[in-house]
Amino acid sequence: TLSLTDALPICTPSAATVSYQWKANGVNIAGATASTFTLTSTQLGTTITVTVTGTGNYSGSATSAATAAVS
Question: Which sign does the torsion angle of CA 44, 49, 53, 58 carry?
């Protein structure tokens, strides 16, 4: 299981709302929109990133650096 803090250390200001999108090789992983993501065999050989998008007191997005290829 990957967590947001593993991939992208971020603090959320009060009254801000964040959404998450995990990606494999830059492509959205369907349904992977929580702050944690459990790898499956589908991700073998891919690199993983997460994009966090904020609204409210913080707006904008940040994308983590890619992991090493999943093995």
Answer: positive
Q: Helices (DSSP H) in 1-71: which residue ranges?
A: 4-7
SS3 label, residue 16? strand
Question: What sign results for the dihedral spanned by CA atoms 39, 5, 53, 45?
Answer: negative
pLDDT tens over the chain, length 71 residues: 666 555 555 566 677 788 999 999 999 999 999 989 999 999 999 999 999 888 877 778 889 999 999 99
Residue 41 and residue 3: Cα distance in Å, rounded?
Answer: 18
